[in-house]
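Please decode residue identities from the backbone states below.
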């Protein structure tokens, strides 16, 4: 499983980028919440970095032979949440094993990337057949169902988009992609029209309220739109350089309690307020660079499985980052996803580092161009 690698082939650029994002997150969490959460985030960084280093040195081609175990593990974890999960704020998304509380849907994202990387590569010659495309769609349905029932619509959307990205990189025909879009876009418009109606039953009431708050923020200013409106106000108040780290202004987001638990979904508002436009741009640029570096590794991977792993992580980090920042700046309805490597969350942080570990190993075995 371990191979002889050359240190010059190790992608230290990617490591530096994700560590820089994590350090910004640790400082932001320390300002947005108490020191205990900051310590937990630091422990997550240390543990995640260790796993990243170890995984990056294992041959991913050997590990992918256990791809069915990855799939069964992802479904098993989500099923445990569905049966034994702990409910917090009306959502059943966490379980406690051996005294450790974690969110299985975060780890399931990485396990699904590994599963599809090997499955698609094994069937790449006949991927565009009805049988194989049908099987790929069938295998993703249990994960989408269990995550949606938590309820966690935002993560369901992330996993669905990630799945489509994996299929595209795997070699799905452009004709099929065009056909799907021709059906999906009108269907999405029709569904959106339906779910904003008063008597709709497709989504839960609180999910509909978030969409309506996005469309009519003034009407929901003291309810569902409250946090997003305060978020954009906080980001704007930071101006160019921000109010300073751990600002003591009583009107700030964290001191005025204008956003509940700003260390998670709205951490970008804290960064915008305390570090201003410059700090916000640094976070966005780092996220873009991490995504591009993963895409670059995917392009140079030695095989299709490696390309899918690296591109899958690129899509996950890029899309989830876009969703989070889109919500905090009110470009999108409130979805409740974390900002990769930045938001507080032990499971999210460690899972992302595990994924980056696999990307680094793909990079160590990349084709060389002279």
């Amino acid at each position: 499983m371990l191979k002889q690698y050359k240190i010059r082939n190790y992608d230290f650029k990617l490591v530096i980028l994700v560590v820089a994002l994590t350090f910004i997150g640790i400082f932001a969490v320390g300002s947005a919440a108490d020191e205990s959460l900051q310590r937990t985030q630091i422990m997550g960084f240390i543990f995640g970095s260790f796993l990243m280093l170890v995984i990056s040195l294992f041959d991913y081609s050997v590990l992918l032979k256990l791809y069915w175990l990855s799939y069964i593990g992802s479904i098993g974890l989500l099923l445990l949440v569905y049966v034994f999960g702990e409910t917090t704020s009306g959502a059943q998304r966490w379980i406690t094993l051996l005294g450790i509380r974690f969110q299985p849907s975060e780890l399931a994202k990485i396990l699904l990337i590994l599963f599809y990387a090997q499955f698609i590569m094994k069937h790449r010659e006949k991927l565009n057949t009805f049988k194989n495309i049908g099987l790929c769609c069938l295998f993703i349905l249990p994960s989408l169902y269990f995550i949606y029932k938590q309820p966690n619509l935002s993560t369901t959307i992330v996993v669905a988009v990630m799945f489509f990205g994996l299929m595209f990189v795997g070699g799905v025909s452009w004709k099929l992609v065009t056909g799907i879009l021709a059906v999906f876009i009108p269907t999405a418009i029709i569904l959106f029209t339906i779910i904003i109606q008063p008597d709709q039953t497709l989504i839960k009431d609180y999910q509909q309220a978030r969409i309506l708050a996005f469309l009519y923020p003034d009407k929901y200013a003291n309810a569902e739109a409250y946090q997003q409106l305060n978020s954009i106000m906080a980001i704007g108040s930071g101006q160019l350089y921000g109010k300073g780290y751990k600002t003591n202004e009583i009107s700030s987001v964290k001191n005025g309690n204008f956003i509940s638990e700003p260390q998670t979904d709205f951490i970008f508002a804290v960064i915008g307020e305390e570090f201003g436009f410059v700090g916000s741009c640094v976070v966005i640029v780092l996220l873009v660079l991490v995504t591009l570096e993963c895409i670059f590794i995917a392009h140079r991977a030695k095989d299709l499985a490696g390309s899918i792993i690296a591109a899958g992580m690129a899509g996950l980090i890029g899309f989830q980052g876009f969703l989070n920042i889109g919500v905090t700046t009110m470009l999108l309805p409130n979805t409740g996803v974390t900002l990769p490597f930045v938001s507080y969350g032990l499971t999210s942080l460690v899972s992302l580092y595990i994924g980056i570990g696999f990307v680094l190993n793909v990079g160590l075995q990349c084709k060389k161009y002279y």
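Observation: The chain is about 65% helix and 5% strand.
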